[in-house]
Amino acid sequence: MHRWFPNRDATFAAGLAGQVPRMPANPEHLEQAALEHLPAEVWSFIARGAGSGRTLAANRRAFNRWELVPRMLTGIDTADLTTKLFGTTLTAPLMLAPIGLAGLAHARGEAPAAQVVRDLGLGMILSNSSSLSLEEVAEEAPGANLWFQLHPPKSEALAVSMVQRAEKAGYQTIVVTIDSWTRGWRPADLDYAYDPFLRGHGMGTFLADPEFCRPLPSDVPHGSKEWNENLATRWREVFGHSHLSFDYLATLRTVTDLPILVKGVLHPDDADLAIEHGADGIVVSNHGGRQVDRSRAALDALPDVAARVAGRVPVLFDSGVRTGADASIALGLGADVVLLGRPWIYGLAIDGANGVRHVLEAVLAELELTVLMLGAGTVGELRRCVEPAYHARPREAGDTHHDRRPS
After folding, report:
1. Residues marked as binding?
2. Out of 65, 105, 219, 309, which could bridge 349 as a Cys pair, Cβ 3.0 to 4.6 Å?
3. Average pLDDT, integer, range 365-380
């Protein structure tokens, strides 16, 4: 059983020798530190959300509607965070969410993150818009618990090719993202006139696929203006399957035996439909606020979806998680595993593999300490420790002090 919070104690001990961490533990400071290591348009592409950013902000505010209620003198002095998912044991219920174009943050793309999750006994969902190919990431991190995210392309042949490549390369799960069949309205990207895909970024897995490359001219030098134009045209041709239905899951089932998860669920009825059509898991997510402005906060959707799923399949959660305490709330509201998104790419931008490790160890240390101080002992016991925040509870008749928490 891994212990995470001793890393905190080691930091304090190093402080006695005048050593301070290179990276901040505060997630807000981490985001700002990443700005110093990234071009403004790249930072904006990663950090900003759709429209006016209301959903991005709502994802964070939603955590304020819940509070953790510790129980004292339980006699618990160790926390068991281990979690089993699809036959694999994770040292904690935490994985890296899929984020594309990691090569914009670090020269080695997704490889350092994959190596860190392998070393920590966690897992990573690789974006199909990765800078490295899915094979390269697997080769760089042998033994890592890697899952493959599929944005269903218009071409069924391309989808089949990608899924079968992932299975052959050792990926353990296919995560079908259903909430981004077209790009969201993102004013920050428009203000910079910046679309990294049209500049040839995020094409690692595509360019390693014979089905994707088949129409590309073989006599045009890679990296030339003509090549980039052809690549952008081909990408536009295949990106975004606008006519998808839940029947798509049955199509995928004919080409792979891997577990299939559906990512982007906010409504309990969609969770039901996904399971009825063969989904092996649900990911509650609004794409980190990047797709639909004023969409429902993902955390607000989690309890209803988890209740409807009722343990039939695992429920994963992302969108808005920044800290171990955040993860505790999501786990307490029904998530089996929490996915961490933007913070890991910030860590990658600041200090490569060391930065990703720093971010994960900080979240894990706080998660472990939170579980211990709640008197929970295990992740499963968190569900008795999460309650609506006092200010968010329905006002009762005759309550004249509903806006103040009793002392």
Report:
1. 98-100, 127, 149, 177, 186, 263, 285, 287, 290, 318-322, 341-342
2. 105
3. 93
CB of 292 within 8 A of CB of 50?
yes
> CA–CA distance from 241 to each of 100, 155, 236, 248, 271 (Å)?
18, 8, 11, 10, 20
Q: Which of 287, 358, 391, 401 is catalytic?
A: 287
Which residue in the block uniquely carries the two structure tokens 């006139």? 193
**Bridge partner list, 312:** none
Are 298 and 286 within 8 A, CB to CB?
yes
Q: Where are the domains of the chain?
A: 25-389
Query: What is the assigned CATH class of domain 25-389?
Result: alpha beta
Q: How many CB atoms lie within 10 A of CB 139?
A: 14
Q: Which residues are annotated as a binding site for glyoxylate?
A: 186, 263, 287, 290
276-297: pLDDT as tens digits: 999 999 999 999 989 899 999 9
Task: Find out whether 128 and 171 touch, Cβ atoms under 8 Å.
Answer: no
Q: Which residue has the higher pLDDT, 125 or 228?
A: 125
Cα separation, 395 vs 2, whole angstroms: 43
Tens-place pLDDT, residues 233-246: 898 888 877 788 99
Q: Measured between alpha carbons, how far is residue 184 from residues 40, 237, 407 in Å?
A: 20, 18, 45
pLDDT for 406 equals 30
